[in-house]
What we know:
The chain is an alpha/beta fold and about 260 residues long. It has 2 domains: about 1-200, 2-enoyl-CoA Hydratase, Chain A, domain 1; about 200-250, Lyase 2-enoyl-coa Hydratase, Chain  A, domain 2, CATH 1.10.12. It has 11 helices and 10 strands. It has helices spanning about 25-40, 65-70, 75-95, 110-115, 145-150, 155-160, 170-175, 185-200, 200-215, 220-235, 240-250, and strands at about 1-5, 10-15, 45-50, 55-60, 100, 105, 120-125, 125-130, 165, 180. Strand 1 (about 1-5) and strand 2 (about 10-15) form a beta hairpin. Helix 1 runs parallel beside helix 3. The longest helix has 17 residues, at about 75-95. It starts with a strand and ends in a 10-residue tail after the last helix. The structure holds ligand T3D. Ligand T3D binds next to helix 2, helix 3 and strand 6.
Amino acid sequence: MIRYDVTDAVATVTLDRPEAMNSLTVEVKTALLGALREAAAADAVRAVLITGSGRAFCAGQDLREHAANLEEGRGLAGTVRAHYNPLISLITGMDKPVVAAVNGVAAGAGASLAYACDLRVASERAKFAMAFSGIGLAPDSGASWTLQRLVGQGRAAELLLLGEPLDAARALELGLVSRVVPEDELLKSAHELAVRLAAGPTKAYAATKRALHFAASHSLEEALELEADLQDALAATDDHLGATRAFLAKERPSFTGR
Ligand code: T3D
C-alpha cells in the first residue's frame, strides 16, 4: 500500500491504493509513517517526495473504515492522535525538505498531507478539496494551521467552510502550489525539484524550516533570537564554510549536507 524507493538521495514515498483513491486506513497510515520515519532517519536521504498512484493523490480518511468505527461507537480522538498527528509532526519537523507531487485529487486529510509538505508541485489534473465539512467534520491533520499560513485566514475559512474543490490553476493562483505541470511530466518535474533540494545545504534547509515554523507563532524579537542561534550553528557547517570559499574562488559550491 506504500512504495518506498531511493534514487539520487531522494526517498520517494508513493501511496499505492489506487482502487480506493489512496484513502487512508490504519494500515496505510502505519505504513506511511514507517516509510517517512525511515526516510527521516537515513543519512543517504536528503529530500523526500510524496505522491500517489492512479488518479488520486489521497482521498483522506478511508470512509468505509471510518463508518465501521462509528458503528462500533469509537470516538475519533484516539485515531486522529495516534495516526494523523504523528504524520504531520514528522513531515513539518523533518530535518529535510519534503515535496508533494500532487497527481490527482487531494481531499480531507489527503489535502492536509499535501499542505504539510514544504513544497507542492501539481499535475494539471490535481484538485484540492477540503472535504471535512462535507461530512460534518472540522479540519484535522494540521489543515487549520497549514492552510491559513499558505493562503491567509480569509481564504482558509472560505475553503474549509464551503469545501468547494479547487482545480490546479486556482491552487497556483492562491499560492497553494509552487507550479503546475502536465500530467505526464509531474513525477519527472517533482523528482528534479527534490533532487535539487537533495543536493543542497541540508542543515540550512532544516534551519529554514525550523525558523519559519517558529516565526509563525512567536514575536519578531523571538524570531530574531532564533535566527541568530541558527546562523551561529550553521557557521560551523562544512556546507557553509565550503560555499563561502567557493564563492571567493569563483567556483560552484558543492554541498554534502554536513
Ligand atoms: O476517522 C478518522 O480518523 C477521522 C479523520 C478524518 C479525516 C478526513 O480525511 S475526513 C475527509 C474524508 N474524505 C472525504 O470525505 C473524501 C471522499 N471522497 C470524495 O469526495 C470523492 O471520492 C473524491 C472527490 C475524492 C473523488 O471523486 P470522484 O468522483 O473522482 O471519484 P469517486 O467515484 O467518488 O471515488 C472513486 C472510488 O474511490 C469509489 O469507490 P468505488 O465506488 O469505485 O468502489 C469511492 O468510494 C472510493 N473513495 C473515494 N474516496 C474515498 C473512497 N473510499 C474510501 N474512503 C474515501 N475517502
